[in-house]
């Protein structure tokens, strides 16, 4: 079954993922313009795009465990997933800056003074080198260093989830579930590969 | 005892835009001859235009129904608000369970257009209908020695789905100092825009303290207790570093996680400009004396 799925996936191109990924924010923007996001479209857009970014990051981190433990290979989509994550978080930041806070001096004050924003910002900045090196040339040139560099994704995911946990009021379960999912996906990578190697 | 506070304006004062521009020009003209001071109150009143009814009734923080802004509208129709009574107890002459109908029969309902400033740095202007809390407290008779008023929201998880989660400790509780409670601005609201208050806004009766952050204005009240010691308040219990007992609107004292210097008016769409937050939410003239001598950065 999995083998059939893998065979089929090999024929699925990756470009539709980029198209769909770009269409979602456009659709959100349209909804906001037409009132479908409610009376506070700014926060609705900011939160929706931020959460979608975090979800994409989780799917990106799911690629390796899926291959290792389920045998499902979606590796060819990982670059698209990672780049879309970066794109969404960049948009999230843009909405926060331009439509929400609006005042440049306050944006800077928030980044320096508010831990949840400092953490979110750090997560975004760490994604920049990853996005820049998400191309075949960089992979070739950096070799093994590329793999080491892209392990930054783990840190980005933790920072993103902590950012979400820190920004809510009261005791809320949803952001904790995201943090739990990140930690679970990362801990799966700690399971030693020894047994599999011996079997091979 | 109603009508102790005369509002800047009533709904009839909402100025058509053409007239507004006209008056602005007159004000500008007056400023030229040094009469700007005379024109200032009119200018202030003009900016206080009630928010859209849709904004007021679809964008709510009422965690008893969920933490999303749309959750209260989505789920609050499950709430039964009849019959409703308020237990008034503690240091009062006439403690007991007061049926809402009996209370309302004795009260004068007024319209009060107030600024509403949420601690999350968004704001609205709400045309409330209600009566002064002072009148209700007088009805029950406040005993000598009472210093604080404690309030409690209904607990009914079968109708309030948010109460199935420990977002906060239920029941939601709030409190005021007695002088704050007796202040003529402090309202018990039973309506919005001349209609019975929608469930998602705190039906059938809620508190409105316009110079404090919105969470002080406790909704769907079932108990009012007069005490001589500062009562616990929900958000303070949840996070004392972020939410104080007073929680007066103050642009100079930031929330630890965000600035309180400005606010986003709700209902203005994608490109609504932030505006500066006013000291005591614009009611400084009326309430600043309540806090004279107090360090507001400590008593936040």
List the helices and strands and how they pair.
The complex is a heterodimer of chains A (200) and B (300).
Chain A lengths: L1 H10 L3 H19 L7 H30 L7 H24 L2 H10 L1 H18 L3 H7 L1 H7 L1 H16 L5 H16 L5 H6 L1
Helix pairs in contact in A: 2-3, 2-4, 3-4, 3-9, 3-10, 4-6, 5-6, 6-9, 7-8, 9-10
Chain B lengths: L16 H16 L3 H12 L5 H6 L12 H5 L9 E6 L5 E4 H7 L3 E8 L4 E11 H8 L7 E6 L19 E5 H4 L5 E6 L2 E2 L9 E3 L12 E7 L6 H5 L23 E4 L9 E2 L7 H4 L13
Parallel strand pairs in B: 1-10, 4-11
Antiparallel strand pairs in B: 1-2, 3-4, 4-7, 5-6, 5-10, 7-8, 7-9, 11-12
Helix pairs in contact in B: 1-2
| Radius of gyration computed on alpha carbons of chain B | 19 Å
Tell how many strands the DSSP assignment of chain A holds.
0
Tell me the β content of chain A.
Answer: under 5%
Alpha plus pi helix count of chain B: 9
Q: Which stretches of chain A of 5+ consecutive residues score pLDDT under 50? A: none
Average pLDDT reading of chain A: 94
Instruction: Write the H/E string of chain B, N to C.
Output: HHHHEEHEEHEEHEEEEHEEH
Q: List low-pLDDT spans of chain B.
A: 13-46
CATH homology superfamily name of the largest domain in chain B: Oxidoreductase, molybdopterin-binding domain
Number of domains of chain A: 1
Q: Would you tell me which CATH topology of the largest domain in chain B applies?
A: Sulfite Oxidase, Chain A, domain 2
Give the biggest sheet of chain B.
7 strands, mixed
Number of strands of chain B: 12
Strand content of chain B: 15-25%
Shape of chain B: globular
Q: Specify which chain pair forms the largest interface.
A: A-B, 29 and 34 residues
Average pLDDT number of chain B: 89
Gap between N and C termini of chain A, in Å? 22 Å
Radius of gyration from the alpha-carbon trace of chain A, in angstroms? 19 Å
How much helix is in the residues of chain B?
A: 10-25%
Please give the largest β-sheet of chain A: none
């Amino acid at each position: 079954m999995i083998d059939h799925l893998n065979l089929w996936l090999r024929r699925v191109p990756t470009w539709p993922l980029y198209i769909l990924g770009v269409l979602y924010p456009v659709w959100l923007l349209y909804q906001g313009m037409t009132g479908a996001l409610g009376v506070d479209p700014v926060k609705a857009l900011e939160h929706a795009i931020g959460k979608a970014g975090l979800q994409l990051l989780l799917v990106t981190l799911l690629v390796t465990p899926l291959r290792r433990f389920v045998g499902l290979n979606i590796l060819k989509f990982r670059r698209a997933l990672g780049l879309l994550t970066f794109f969404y978080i960049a948009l999230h930041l843009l909405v926060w800056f331009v439509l929400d806070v609006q005042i440049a001096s306050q944006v800077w004050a928030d980044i320096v003074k508010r831990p949840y924003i400092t953490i979110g910002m750090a997560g975004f900045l760490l994604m920049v080198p990853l996005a820049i090196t998400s191309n075949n040339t960089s992979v070739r040139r950096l070799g093994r260093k590329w793999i080491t560099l892209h392990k930054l994704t783990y840190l980005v995911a933790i920072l993103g989830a902590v950012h979400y946990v820190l920004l809510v009021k009261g005791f809320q379960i949803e952001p904790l579930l995201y943090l739990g999912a990140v930690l679970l996906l990362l801990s799966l990578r700690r399971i030693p590969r020894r047994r599999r190697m011996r079997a091979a | 005892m109603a009508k102790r506070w005369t509002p800047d304006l009533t709904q009839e004062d909402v100025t058509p835009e053409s007239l507004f521009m006209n008056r602005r020009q007159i004000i500008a003209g007056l400023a030229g001859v040094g009469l700007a001071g005379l024109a200032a109150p009119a200018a202030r009143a003009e900016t206080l235009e009630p928010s859209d009814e849709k904004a007021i009734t679809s964008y709510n923080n009422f965690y008893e129904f969920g933490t999303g802004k749309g959750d209260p509208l989505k789920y609050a129709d499950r709430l039964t608000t009849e019959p409703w009574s308020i237990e008034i107890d503690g240091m009062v002459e006439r403690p007991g369970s007061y049926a809402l109908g009996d209370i309302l029969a004795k009260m004068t309902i007024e319209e009060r257009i107030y600024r509403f400033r949420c601690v999350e740095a968004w704001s609205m202007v709400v045309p409330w209908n209600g009566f002064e809390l002072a009148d209700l407290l007088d009805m029950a008779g406040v005993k000598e020695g009472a210093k604080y008023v404690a309030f409690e929201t209904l607990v009914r998880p079968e109708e309030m789905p948010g109460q199935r989660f420990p977002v906060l400790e239920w029941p939601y509780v709030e409190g005021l100092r007695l002088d704050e409670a007796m202040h003529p601005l402090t309202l018990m609201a039973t309506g919005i825009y001349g209609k019975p208050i929608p469930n998602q806004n705190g039906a059938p009766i809620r508190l409105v303290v316009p110079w404090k952050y919105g969470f002080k204005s406790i909704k769907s009240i079932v108990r009012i207790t007069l005490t001589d010691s500062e009562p616990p308040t929900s958000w303070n219990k949840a996070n004392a570093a972020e939410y104080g007992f007073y929680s007066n609107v103050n642009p100079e004292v930031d929330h630890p996680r965000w600035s309180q210097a400005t606010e986003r008016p709700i209902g203005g769409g994608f490109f609504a400009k932030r505006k500066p937050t006013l000291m005591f939410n614009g009611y400084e003239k009326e309430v600043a004396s309540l806090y004279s001598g107090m360090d507001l950065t400590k008593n936040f």
